[in-house]
Write a structure and sequence with these properties.
It is a single chain. Helix content is about 40%, strand content about 20%. By secondary structure, it is an alpha/beta fold. The protein has three domains: about 70 residues, Arc Repressor Mutant, subunit A (Orthogonal Bundle), CATH 1.10.10; about 100 residues, Periplasmic binding protein-like II (D-Maltodextrin-Binding Protein, domain 2, 3-Layer(aba) Sandwich), CATH 3.40.190.10; about 100 residues, D-Maltodextrin-Binding Protein, domain 2. The strands form three sheets. A five-stranded mixed beta sheet has the order 4-3-5-12-6. A five-stranded mixed beta sheet has the order 9-8-10-7-11. A two-stranded antiparallel ribbon has the order 1-2. The longest helix has 22 residues. The C terminus is likely disordered.
């Protein structure tokens, strides 16, 4: 990179860089930034000259980052987050007047349990605030929170470092679902019945056991996995047309199951409830907007009138 004097660099270029990286598409980046696409392309070309690297290359209908772009994005996002915190720290946050965009790393279970209530709260208290629910791999959760790629992560209880704060959102008990006409629906329900069938495992990972498989392993047992897929909605459609079984959180199962077509059974394993937690980076505790949203997620809403301060 030439001309390293920071005074000669337009810092707005890095805002454009961050938007392109997150959206993977110049048109969507321009819409997010409220800029024309030529303006975004011009900013990208200036950065390419600075770094002597294309930074993004065409990939399908969008763009993919080059190795250099992947290498610098964490520092760019961290710097932008720090600048934003500098501007917001100590300032009032008025939810009713804000148009801020927040991002939450979540999975479909947390989306189904948290988003309806949260969006109802935002509709009343912060009608112009935008919320994005995105998927982030668990191994990347801390870096995503540190860089500001996401404001929060919602997941099961995970080991995290001291810079990541978290608080329980609730807990879930796993249940087993099958189609109403399943042969096991009219039989005695126990571990032997559970193990006699084949199963669907929902996971964002390409391999590895589910939480119920760890419990089975401790008991010297194993189940037969017929399908591994990425989300519970798809898994439920499979359950409705096959004799496979699916283990999933109770509240989510009841939201997705119609009264007549799905049969619910308790998980025949000694498994404690799954603890669900909300995670954020400790530096976000200085941002009154992020802390206001935390209260909405945790069900402890701030007063409707006036502004929220630290």
């Amino acid at each position: 990179m030439s001309n390293l004097n920071l005074s000669r660099v337009d810092l707005n270029l890095f805002i454009v860089f961050d938007a392109i990286y997150r959206e993977g598409n110049l048109t969507r980046a321009s819409e997010q930034l409220n800029l024309s696409q030529p303006a975004v392309s011009h900013a990208l070309n200036r950065l390419r000259e600075r770094f002597d690297d294309p930074l993004f290359e065409r990939a399908g209908k969008g763009v993919a980052p080059t190795p250099l772009a992947k290498a610098i994005i964490p520092r760019v996002q961290a710097a932008l987050q720090d600048l934003e915190s500098t501007l917001t720290e100590g300032l009032n946050f008025d939810p009713a007047a804000s148009s801020r965009v927040f991002s939450i790393a979540s999975r479909d279970v947390m989306e189904a349990s948290v988003l309806p209530r949260l969006m109802a709260s935002l509709q009343l208290r912060a009608p112009d605030v935008q919320l994005r629910s995105v998927r982030v791999a668990r191994r990347e959760m801390e870096s995503a929170l540190a860089s500001g790629l996401v404001d929060f992560a919602a997941d099961v209880l995970l080991p995290v470092s001291g810079v990541i704060e978290h608080q329980p959102v609730g807990h879930e008990q796993l249940v087993v679902v099958m189609r109403d006409g399943h042969p096991l629906a009219q039989q005695d329900w126990d571990l032997d019945a559970y193990l006699s069938a084949r199963h669907v495992l929902v996971s964002s990972r390409s391999d590895g056991p589910g939480v119920e498989d760890f419990a089975l392993s401790r008991a010297g047992q194993a189940r037969r996995i017929a399908l591994r897929c990425q989300n519970y909605f798809a898994a439920m459609q499979v359950i409705r047309s096959t004799d496979l079984l699916l283990s999933l959180p109770d509240s989510f199962a009841r939201k997705m199951a119609d009264d007549n077509d799905i049969c619910l059974r308790p998980l025949p394993l000694a498994l404690p409830p799954l603890e669900l937690h909300l995670y954020w980076h400790q530096k976000s505790s200085r941002d009154p907007a992020v802390m206001w949203l935390k209260d909405q997620i945790l069900g402890d809403p701030a007063p409707d009138q006036g502004t929220v301060t630290e």
